[in-house]
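Q: Here's a chain of 114 amino acids. Please give me its 3D structure as tokens.
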Amino acid sequence: MLLALARAHADYSWRDMAAVLRSLRVELAGRDHLVGQAIDEAVAPLLTACLRLVRRRASIPPGPPVRDTAAAVVAALEAVPIAAAGRAPHDVTLTERAVRGVLGLPSAAPRSGA
């Protein structure tokens, strides 16, 4: 589920509303600002979903605490598409790879076109 989320989020992150949210989140991160607080609240369900999925740990090897792992997954979901600057399909492939790395999962077999 987390890998499917990684692929979908990379695709989603370049839509207009996601781009606005991403820009505001980068600009207002860690600041005592009403818009920044609202964005944190909007992103909270993503962190909660990741927490729930990491807690299951069915195929995730033992590692850092669940909260830290989930926060790192969210960070990868947000940062890698920015770094890959929407260069599809590589943005999706790299986001999945980053999440695999955070989770301590082995590399996937290469997909065609990636």
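Q: Can you summarize the key feature?
A: The chain has a mean pLDDT of 82.
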